[in-house]
Write a structure and sequence with these properties.
Layout lengths: L2 H5 L2 E5 L1 H7 L1 H13 L3 E3 L8 H5 L3 H20 L3 E4 L2 H14 L3 H8 L1 E3 H10 L12 E6 L2 H4 L6 H6 L5 E7 L16 H18 L3 E4 L2 H11 L3 E2 L1 H8 L5 H12 L1
Parallel strand pairs: 1-2, 1-3, 3-4, 5-6, 5-7, 7-8
Helix pairs in contact: 2-3, 3-13, 3-14, 5-7, 6-7, 11-12
Amino acid sequence: MTDELLANKKVAYYAGCFADYYYPEVGKATVAVLKRNGIKVVVPDQVCCGLPMMAKGNTRGAFKNLAHNTRELGKLVAEGYIVVATCPSCGLFIKRDYPLLQSDEKTRLVSEHLYHISEYLLALHERGWLDTDFKPVTQTVFYHTPCHLKVQEMSDASVKLLKLIPGISVKYVSKVCCGLSGSYGYDKDNYQRSQQIASQLYREVKETGADLVADDCGGCKLQIEAGTGAKVKHPIILVAEAYGLVTDADFRKAFEAARG
């Protein structure tokens, strides 16, 4: 990520299905945090990244969605926008698999200009461009690393971001798979195996006794909450809270403006 590209302060936010339909607080917090840092944010017309379709054999649907997202995001990349994602799975699929499935210049450029939200904010921080006027958040946090961040070699990005917030103590970092793996763990035939895989993570969460769990992955969030009863938040929500952007009105106003 070049200084020139970062200095544009223009972001196209790819929210993905989870933030769009199940956990809208993530999308609203993301836009609010970016705007707090003087970033011009747009939320372009977008559809599911196609990963669930591809995993279930619906290749026609996956390619259709790939073409749509590449077309819409590609226009913005050509105008100097960075693409930011909050879902590790969407980010991985667009970054790694899109160029393998559709080999053209626009797809390559979208892939090369996509960053996870924590990665992007840390890049701003490294250059002294991130607003670090955070209010203290006195909480202990158990951070769970999603597998789809590990394979992008970003295991510690969100932990580094959280440690910028005064008062937050990252009590434990787990790199154990949650066992859900998208829709895999919801299938009747896979449920017991999914729970067996998750058992170590459940035990870690319970034994650590942190105030809350932070996790970038929506699927991991559902699995951990169901298996432990712990409260799980996306790291970007903790950042928004540290800025004092805690009301739904704050989030909604910023998000709707970005939608245009």
